[in-house]
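Project standup — Tuesday

K.O.: blocked on the structure for the chain from last sprint. Re-posting the sequence here as requested.
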Amino acid sequence: MTSPASRVLVIGECVADVVRADGVPDRVHPGGSPANVAYGLARLGRPATLLTELGPDANGRLIRAHLESAGVRVRAAEVARTPSAVVRLDGQGRARYTFDIGWTLPSAEPVRTDLAQPPAAIHLGSIGAVTEPGAATVLALVERWRGRTQISYDPNVRPALMGDRAEAVRRVERCVALSDLVKASDEDLAWLYPGERPEAVAERWLALGPAVVAVTLGADGAFARTAEGVRAEAAAVPVPVADTVGAGDSFMAAFLHTRAGGADLRACLTHAVTAAALTVSRPGANPPSAAELAAALAAGPAAEVDAV
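H.V.: unblocked you, prediction finished:
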């Protein structure tokens, strides 16, 4: 049996994604950025526990079954109904979201027995890390274990839920400062810091404390920077796009999984962009298994790296 200390504890929301596109029936997919990361980690063979909220409804049952099918240990506080989002796809498969979601997480009781000792790592992100009142519980757990386990964070910005921009930046930067590894998209950074170059934001975030900052650039690939001055870039892997739902979460899961295995920045980016490509090639947040990712990587490296 896997010990609690070998697991990644992922904290954050589950969301039922109602995917809507012209001319086709609505499709409901299990989603939510942290839930997708937990699922992606489990699919790659990394044991994961998800601390979240779920309702006693059909969407809640769908999401729980989905997560548990990959081996995720779900620890959920019960809420009146499972959060949902209408995901509208444009002609290129790019997603825009309209949310019906709250985040309360009154205590860590659903996962208390898993925290008798520090987990192998903690990942937090998106709505659950910055939306009160639940964010207070999330940050209390992170601060409890900071310095004794690796902390990762993905802001996965949802402008409709972020409120005042200046306050959102303050909350995001607090999470950045608590983390060892941070990943964001260029779209996240464009909303948080209009007009600033992603590279400049990454350097400023490194100064707040993380050891690694990675930024995804959509069709232009991704880059990562470390506090020691290592820089890496990765080209995107060209694939036919079904939709972009969950691509960043697959990137995050693969990056974390590969980094935990001791790989260098080159390998982390190569695995991450390849996992993201596999996800966009099929509908919904459907990250690759370890076998699928290994087969795709057989095409060769996608990254270039230099140290300064």
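K.O.: great, moving the ticket to review. DSSP finds eleven helices and 14 strands in the chain. The CA atoms of residues 29 and 74 lie 17 Å apart.
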